[in-house]
Amino acid sequence: MPEGYLPILVMLAIATGFAGIALGLPALLGPRRPNRAKDEPYESGMIAYGDVRRRFPVQFYVVAVLFILFDVETILLYPWAAIAHQMGVFGLLEMAVFLVILLVGFVYAWKNDAFKWE
Questions:
Q1: What is the pLDDT of residues 64-93, one digit of tens each?
Q2: How far is CA 103 from the centre of its chain?
Q3: Residues 23, 28, 29, 35: is their CA dihedral positive or negative?
Q4: What sign for the dihedral angle of Cα 22, 26, 27, 29?
Q5: 58 vs 78, residue with greater confidence
Q6: What are the CA-CA distances from residue 2 to residues 12, 50, 83 (Å)?
Q7: Alpha-carbon distance 51 to 42, whole Å?
Q8: CA distance linking residue 35 with residue 106, whole number of Å
Q9: What whole-number distance in Å separates Cα of residue 61 and Cα of residue 76?
Q10: Could you state, in order of their start, the residue ranges of all structural domains in the chain?
Q11: How high is the mean pLDDT of the chain?
Q12: Would the pTM count as exceeding 0.70?
């Protein structure tokens, strides 16, 4: 049984070695000529003004997390749909419970103005 994992171990070793070489060679062989212009922050070809490390509003992160949460839970519908006919009524009821919980969370976030940009 362990010999079945040998190809995976070899692939992992090759991938790790390739990544190490790809990151290490430029660091060893590349030119090092630091100057003030290279050390400045660069943003879309525009000269930065003010502090480039400004804070984003927390609302930005809340919307991003909610998007990922609902997106991932929606993706879970696809495998269920592929085998829904095999699961019968039990699978349908379980998915109905899942969707109700998802809908309750969505309504809760909506009622608490989690999706508003202010």
A1: 888 898 898 889 889 989 998 899 999 999
A2: 23
A3: positive
A4: positive
A5: 78
A6: 15, 58, 32
A7: 12
A8: 50
A9: 23
A10: 2-111
A11: 86
A12: no
Could you give the C-alpha distances from 37 to 47, 48, 88, 99, in angstroms and in order? 11, 12, 65, 53
Q: Which residue shows structure tokens 């379980």?
A: 94
Token readout for 84 is 């829904």
Q: Which CATH superfamily is domain 2-111 in?
A: NADH:ubiquinone/plastoquinone oxidoreductase, chain 3 (1.20.58.1610)
23 phi, psi to nearest 5 deg:
-90, -30
24, two tokens: 């290490």
State the SS3 of 17-86: HHHHHHHHHHHHHCCCCCCHHHHCCCECCECCCCCCCCCCCHHHHHHHHHHHHHHHHHHCHHHHHHCHHH
SS3 115: coil
Q: Which of the residue ranges 13-17, 53-57, 98-102 would you say has the lowest mean pLDDT?
A: 53-57
- Could you tell me which residues are beta bridge partners of residue 43? 46
